[in-house]
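thread: overnight batch results

M.L. [08:02]
morning all. the overnight job finished for the chain we discussed friday. pasting input first so we're all looking at the same thing
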Amino acid sequence: MRSYFSRIAFAVACLWLFVSAAAQTTGPKPVKREADLLELVKLDKTIKLDVRYARSDNFVGKPVYSEARAFLQRPAAEALVRVHKRLKTDGFGLTIFDGYRPWSVTKLFWDVTPDDKRIYVANPKTGSRHNRGCAVDLSMYDRKTGKLVPMPSDFDEFTERASPNYKGGSVEERRNRDLLRKAMEAEGFTVNSNEWWHFDYKDWQSYAIYDISFDDAGSLGRAPKKPSVKLEPDWKRFFDDAGITGGAYVYDLRSNRYHVYDKERFDRAYSPASTSKIIHSLIFLDSEVLKNEKEVLVWDGTKYDVEGWNRDQDLRSAFKVSAVWFYLNVSRRLTREQMQVYYDAAQYGNRSTKGFGDAYWVNGEIAITPRQQIEFLVKLHGNRLPFSPQVIDVVKGMMVEEKTAGYILRAKTGWSDAYSPQVGWWVGYVERKDNVYFFATELDMKSGDGPKRKEVTRAILKGLGII
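M.L. [08:03]
and the structure it wrote out:
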């Protein structure tokens, strides 16, 4: 699935949107440039890697990368290669400590760094230029010996010696440091004020913050691989036992395989109903029409059939009980145009916002297929949707349905009675240590059938040995 969705997902992920809650009439700000991360050693094999974050000899004291790789956005990567070639005349080459860095690693660095040393690490609230693929940590090596040249300090040394303007150290150390800086600045890089080894590329602001794996970063140039499909006619017994009709679909990420019951319904579009609360929660937080997931909306006293709705709600509680009134009121803080931009960026279902201002995700024209539900969840799991990593992290936490020693199940139900037959959903994914399984179950519902969404799905997941 990584390769299958990598092109689409990265094109989506780069559409970084900052929609102000106050911008009710002006619409969203321009989207970010498409990601085009290149692996540095593949551009020039004489560039050396010394990725200490893939080892334990770093300030964290343990590996934070699963493998030693370094990526930059294409313009920055090509500029770096020019620097590498220019330094050859002086007998030097570049050694890379770090390039693109997933946001989750930036958050880890912040969490483990003492307050008085945090000037040396990026705040995850704003993200790092490493997260955008436009920052690089590096030094020089001697082309004759292959060894790093002397510098005033070591990499990731949190002392005054790390400053690019430090006056101490030997003449050779300062000369090497200044030569590196001069060569980098000539190609559009700017040195960090606290770290002689850290350089930012000039157009870093035009890129989004990413929290994607090196595997995904390295798959941009590969042709997407079509997933295999295994039909599961025996799953009919689960529906018969529950006295209901519908379809069930499970995607095995590692094997890139769909398990399908009722192939015809797999690509038939239905109302997303409350499963849309996943994307709407992402939109509310990313656009900042909600301050955060703890902001409370006061219940106006209207009595609803669902008892859980009849109280004040924040985003977490409203998500859990599917409180339509909460989502309707918050959605009205956006304009239809703003909502449309998010739908288009995330490629969500048929992207229709017709009926905006009402609960159109239940009774409007917006529709989504089971296959699209799974594709959306795959991008959510891989942090490849056009929302900030912080926002994605919050919504993933809201989705946790079950957590055991062996797996985490994240999911959302949905039910629309505006159609005949009524539409019922349970969609989500199961994270195990060695794999991730995505599911979408869609049922023809009637009164009293609510529990059957999970009943049928759990029977299938248990049959596959997933839970």
